[in-house]
Amino acid sequence: MKLTLTNVTKKFDQQTIIDDASFTFEKGKIYGLLGRNGSGKTTLFNCISRNLPLDGGQIAFDEEGVSRQNYENTDVGFVYATSHLPGFLTGYEFVKFFIEVNQARIQGIQDPSVYLLEAGIEEKDHHRLLRDYSYGMHNKVQMLVTMMVHADVLLLDEPLTSFDVVAAHEMKKLIIAQKENSVVIFSTHILQLAQDLCDEIVLLHDGKLTSISAERIHDANFEEEIIALLSTNSEKQQMVSKTVVPNEAGE
């Protein structure tokens, strides 16, 4: 399974955010998407998940030589930087509802408590209303239900920034387990996190996607190299950062 982006372009008004970008992501790898604020990471995720239309190019799922452009948005799991969960339900009720709605896609265990415990939600919190959950707990539940369906493509937008050390460790294990079934891409500003988790680093800079060789991820001067690459064309980057772009505020 591959996710193929070919000459993808996305504009807002007269500002080009993604500029004729091409890249192929493969199942079995975790890709870290790095870029400066306003570079278009969340916009790219919204294009892949079909929340935003393209202004040019195409995005396709490629499997066994068959290319599929008209995939469903349910084929893409998207963990947003800010979760949107129904506060009037308990954690248990929400996961139970999610299992029922996605019955055909969730194999094996059907007990919501098992999943909540796996995500680090303690049993005493299973029957609390989601509106009373902390920000980090919200993100745990959001990540949990997204991963339960084993979507072909899994997009994680700044997934671990709200977690403490223990919770982040638990979530890392869940993310690593996903690459067996999904193309996994996550955006982050934390270079150490990308180095710990990723099989490949992809830069989104000046509207283009560029791969950084896996062999270089753990080089002693890797951080300096990334900073240098993302510092080029800073005047253009500042213009993009000042542009008001939907869903980009949290990048």
Tell me the layout of helices and strands.
Blueprint: E1 2-12, E2 15-26, E3 30-34, H1 41-48, E4 56-63, E5 66-68, E6 76-79, H2 91-101, H3 112-118, H4 135-148, E7 153-157, H5 165-178, E8 183-187, H6 191-197, E9 200-205, E10 208-212, H7 222-231, H8 234-242
Helix pairs in contact: 2-3
Protein name: ABC transporter domain-containing protein
Organism: Latilactobacillus fuchuensis
Pfam family, one: ABC_tran
Keywords:
alpha/beta; Rossmann fold; six-stranded mixed beta sheet; four-stranded antiparallel beta sheet
General description of the model:
The protein is an alpha/beta fold and about 250 residues long. It has a domain at about 1-80 and about 155-170 and about 180-240: Rossmann fold, CATH 3.40.50.300. The chain contains 8 helices and 10 strands. Strand 1 and strand 2 (about 15-25) form a beta hairpin. The protein is globular, with a radius of gyration of 18 Å. The protein starts with a strand and ends in a 9-residue tail after the last helix. Mean pLDDT is about 90; it is low at about 235-250.
Q: How is this structure best summarized?
A:
With 251 residues, the protein is α/β, with parallel strands linked by helices. 32% of the residues lie in helices and 25% in strands. It has a domain at 2-82 and 153-168 and 181-242: P-loop containing nucleotide triphosphate hydrolases (Rossmann fold), CATH 3.40.50.300.
